């Protein structure tokens, strides 16, 4: 009802599709409700929702009307009052793979490198896999992204650290430009593109690694880390944020649901202190990277010892499985769905 009042008050809002107005109102209300929930939880960082900048955060969301796909599913036409017309879509997803009635929402978002169309589908994704009879425990870290219960380690990619020089150079270029000038807009777009590339690299790494881990094991155990509290350490905050442990966990739980693999989140307390051989507590500082048990004489790498403890706790746990992620927009991974040829033509070389 309030959306109708806004449409009468603002002429530009009346041109938008009615369901699109409802979707925008729902997103605004959820942001306000989250603010009050944070107030009840007495969170330290909370603020009333603010309007996003239209330069980089513009978006509009349609539901089941206001848009139409062409027969070849490569062109989308928006039929609201703005009369934006038809747009060709370029990508690797074949929309013929999905039925039109499964498309519940269509969202147009603006990124630093252009506009994107996101299709939210109501489908149940379940994939088959061959059981491997293997269980694994993961201990995430900063030197190594994780150490598993078999002693294998994976190097931390450090996407942000590798791009810091380029980001610093682009930031200086932006600060030297005059506000409101065309050069400032170009510099801002260049900096935004670099940040967007880093975030995509981080997400791509988490998605592919989580999928590989899930497909290779029948049970995956990890620590239930409170990353929000860990980033309060000013010396390690940037490195922890760059590692993106929470995103990796979310994709582990998502693919665990897709492939039917158990994902178990265990309490991180004493996983690094207890001896995986005898179970006795061995106190050690964070700088001590080798576990030496003075009870049984067992010597092992600190992270490897923690990964073994994580797996043992998970195997003893009954009914305490990880929270499966749902509703996330899936990333394009080779071989998941049939691909179509890009609709964008190749540019001719300059003479």
Structure keywords:
11 helices, three-stranded antiparallel β-sheet, five-stranded mixed β-sheet, alpha+beta, 351 residues, globular, Nucleotidyltransferase, domain 5
Question: What would you say this structure looks like, in words?
Answer:
The protein has about 350 residues and is an alpha+beta fold. It has two domains: about 1-120, no CATH class; about 135-155 and about 205-315, Nucleotidyltransferase, domain 5. The chain is about 40% helix and about 20% strand. The strands form four sheets. Strands 9-8-7-10-11 form a five-stranded mixed β-sheet, with helices on both faces. A three-stranded antiparallel β-sheet has the order 1-5-6. A three-stranded antiparallel β-sheet has the order 2-3-4, with no helix packed on it.
Cα distance spanning the termini: 59 Å
CATH architecture heading of the largest domain: 2-Layer Sandwich
- Helix-strand pattern: HHHHEEEEEEEEEHHHEHHHEEEH
Main sheet: which strands, in order across? 9-8-7-10-11
Kindly report the CATH topology of the largest domain.
Answer: Nucleotidyltransferase, domain 5
Mean pLDDT value: 85
Unreliable segments of 5+ consecutive residues: 319-347
For the report, how would you describe the main beta sheet? 5 strands, mixed
- Helix content bin: 25-40%
Structural class: alpha+beta
Q: Work out the helix count.
A: 11
Top-tier CATH class of the largest domain:
Alpha Beta
Give the strand tally. 13
Q: How many structural domains?
A: 2
Work out the strand percent. Answer: 15-25%
* General form: globular
Alpha-carbon Rg, integer: 24 Å
